[in-house]
Amino acid sequence: MFFKKINNLIFVTLLLIVSISYAQQTAKYVFLFIGDGMGDNQIYATELYKASMTGEHIYEPLSFSQFPVHSFMTTYSANSLTTDSSASGSAMATGEKTNNHWVSLDPVHKTKQETIAEKAKRAGYKVGILSSVTIDHATPASFYAHQESRGDYHEIALQLPLSNFDFFAGGGVHDLGVKSDKNSVSTQLGKYGYTYITTEKGIKDLKKGDSKIVAVNPGTYSGKEYYWEIDNRSESIPLSYFTKKGIELLDNDKGFFMMVEGGKIDWALHSNDLASSIMETIAFDEAIKEAVKFYKEHKEETIIIVTADHETGGLSLGSNTSKGLKLNLLKNQKISAQEFERKLKVLKEQERKISFDEVLDSVKVNFGLGGQLKDLELTKAEKKWLYEAYENEFIEMKEVNPDRDYLDHSADKPFTLRVITILSEKAGIAWGTEGHTAMKVPVKVIGAGQEYFRSTIDNTDVAKIIMQLMQLPK
Ligand SMILES: [Zn+2]
Prior knowledge:
Blueprint: H1 2-23, E1 29-35, H2 40-54, E2 69-74, H3 85-94, H4 116-122, E3 126-131, H5 138-141, H6 153-159, E4 167-170, H7 185-191, E5 195-197, H8 200-204, E6 213-216, H9 239-250, E7 256-262, H10 264-270, H11 274-297, E8 302-307, E9 311-312, E10 315-316, H12 337-348, H13 356-367, H14 380-395, H15 415-426, E11 430-431, E12 436-437, E13 441-447, E14 457-458, H16 459-469
This protein binds zinc ion.
């Protein structure tokens, strides 16, 4: 009896110690990496593709696939089972659901939902928000803006300097405006003491302690999002560099919160362009590796969470039209769908008429299709399907804008997207949609508090757990 009592006492004490240590588990340095549209198959396809490049292994895990905690996350929004980036970004940022296209607002009362980044800043942490798409785009906006429509880029960008955050980096804003206009983003940034840097030297010269910075990659499209990784533009500063710089600037004794978005993963998937999406995922992994280096120096106090806001494309690593997966065929794709479309536009604008054979030649050079390469021959039916689009675009001169919004899909698949579809089929992959799906997304975690992510969570739990780990007010 006595021993039983003692045993009970020991058990209760142990339980107390365990629960106290759980309750006190904190993280000073919090990294949240959001691969936009990056489902589990997108990650695995990247790993298989990477391995096929060297031929040494079947599978080469990305850095975050080697994290100790792996689980899944539900992503539905307040008004749809299939979320968009702003609703899911808002859920991860605030711990509350909102409607699709809304940015960190209560879906009923339209009141502001405070974000973990705003709470962290108020509590004395430093804050950094990075993205490879524009910094006023849905995912980054979810952490500092409150707006009924994600498309209100101007209103969103005007809220950026009000956040008081220390470091914004990667892509720029849609419309910076001019200093002479008192309603411009440029004027607003100046008024709140922000420096907008767009030169390589200016970015490289940034140092520890610099704050209120918006550092924009000098190599971007005119829309101010990154060029495509697959196009390998030398003027571009990689997201990994900005992540490293961000760590240098934000590092301080109180700690920091940093959100990094791999935004173009999703944009490529909206075109069902897996080769481009894979290259974006590899670049995203390079940014994560910078956080892992920091984690290794501050293991007890750092957590890295890698997840997605939703899956895009309904990617299947198998299809009815092929005999198994042949991802290595994608390495014949040398160019993004967008850049190929730009090439076609240049061809079209020449004075002489461009023949179908000339266009097919360009397909061969840029995608390996239709030449002598094994598994990449074009069938009669495929050529006929391509010819239909050629007729549309080169004879009837139907306009296809290569820089159109990535969500704008015309009823007729343009020539470029037909080429991408044929390559997908030959590589043995299939797509359920050119939009988002309601699939659960992967969550991969390492560091202080990783145990909170062990079971399947909801996207709102990301904010709730971070609030607990950083001891932020509810
Ligand atoms: Zn999307």
